[in-house]
Amino acid sequence: MDEFFYQIQKTDLSKFLNNIIQKNELYAPIKTDAIRFEKIESPEKIYLDTNADFPLKEFFFRDREKLFSFDKNKIKVEIEKPSKTRVFFGVRRCDLNAVKHQDFIFMEKHKDPYYSAQREDAILIGYHCKTAPSKYCFCGSMDLGDHYDLMFWEDESHYFVHVGTKKGENLINSSKELFSKTNIKLNEEHKKIDFTNRLKKKDISKLQDNPDWKKGVDKCISCAACTTLCPTCYCHEIKDEVTLSDLQKGERLREWSSCQLKSFTKVAGNHVFRENREERFKHRIYHQLQYFKERYNIEMCVGCGRCITHCPTEIDFVEIINEMKEK
Amino acid sequence: MQNQKVRKLYTIQSGLKKMNKPKVGIYGLTGCAGCQLSIIFNEDEILDLISLIDLRAFPFIKEKNYDEEFDLVFMEGLVASANDLEVLKKVRSKTKILVALGACAHTGCIPAYRKWTLKENYEHLLYKKDDIIKDEDPSPIENHVKVDFTIPGCPPDKHEILTFIKDVLKGKTPKTYNNPVCVECRRNNNDCLLIVGKPCMGPITAGGCHSICINGGFECWGCRGPSGDANYDAWIEILREQGHDDEFIKTRMKIFAGLKMEEDAFKILK
Prior knowledge:
- The structure holds two protein chains of two kinds.
- By secondary structure, chain A is of the alpha+beta class.
- Chain A is 28% helix and 24% strand.
- Chain A has two domains: 173 residues, no CATH class; 96 residues, no CATH class.
- In chain A, strands 3-2-6-7-8-9-1-10 form an eight-stranded mixed beta sheet.
- Chain B folds into two domains: 148 residues, 3-Layer(aba) Sandwich (Rossmann fold), CATH 3.40.50; 88 residues, no CATH class.
- Chain B contains eleven helices and seven strands.
- The longest helix of chain B is centred in the last third of the chain and has 20 residues.
- The N terminus of chain B is likely disordered.
- At the A-B interface, helix 8 of A face helix 2, helix 6, helix 7 and helix 10 of B.
């Protein structure tokens, strides 16, 4: 894609978003008791001061998904698709990368028709942070890439907009009168976000037995807020629900699960693989920072910091790792 | 970290046989009858349900009840009187699968709160006159008889009752939901009430309730009893940091599940 920026007057942003609403569904962060991505009818309510509390995950990898219905031995697969194209505005760099990681798992590594149906037509418009929106952000320590259809950089009187894909370009073209081309090129400086290099990278594979993990483990209440709010965690469980009128009829469902729960590794015969909290606590962090990378050569974690911000006991695993001494 | 005990909410392990029209009884001990109502609240499914089971006894809504052997009995309420104990033992001796239905049967719930008050505070309220009701120490039914399965909650989730019945009919081992309330709560995109500063019991309480209270902005009071591996130390520390004293925390725990939590949690409190 073209490396030159477009620009749009700040006062014209709502015109652009209204043009999107005409033909598509627009989702953007709205602040009520918390900040969530919600479908919006008018752009005035959009809240961009800080990142949303809940990531985009639920829109593509839904928390409860019907896989198929069954009747005795017959199964019927009906894959739901959103009725209109969904456009997401105001997505941060971390969350865009998280979507990319989920795309990798559900669309490249495995062909998951349910995820694909939700994800394929969606358009992602980013909003680039200047500085860390939360004190727990550490995206600067992670290896993030440019994954967006459009990305917005805020400036004093206008936004600089970079086009990432054809889908994004089409959106610009449909509101052509609002955008003008600039001669400024996208460079690495634009992608820097201040105060986000919190995690000091080290080889944690040798730190499995470090006593410092206990600082986090003792405070962990196994509530699974970290994995539920994580934009990249994809673990789930599968269950059947039958109807009462005919016990041979029913639905097979996929629901989010979490490695932080004892029930997650429970198998037939009531054996639990990760019985104690410490093993479960460490597993999440090692999966995010080490195991996934070993297997697929990318880190799973994107450094959004939600697992720390939303932890009721504020367990800061970044701080714990930073303070660990390598033997 | 405290030593976590494995809490078993059921003894049905395997080998459950598919049941054709099981003989069912629905009884209540000391309680408000709300849990029995939860069964009836399945209005859309009740006719299907009646055709699949043989409802032999349900004194709460039925005039004619058969006193005989049962395949399956739902027992609401706790043991709080001598009469409760008598009914419970009698029914147990005639029942293949006994289910503790609701918080009173499971934890003792609110009626068990009197365990922590002085008897002289309530003695004058007891039915002394004609001696029909003989007072017993309040206790969950599992303290007296073997309980095969527990459907917790004040009141229990009506769908959960149906799921249990469907599993029994199919001969499938019913599943107990043992994860904390937080798991469903976060999935429901709720803002964490603990972070907001409310004394929510979600992290130490078993879920399965779809976090119904928190969805409405009201903190969890622990009606479904302790979760599979509650970290009481960490939870109590959160409440202390919110500014709650140990007396408050203890009282809060006593209300719905005190008898189930006192052993592991009260020793941490002053």
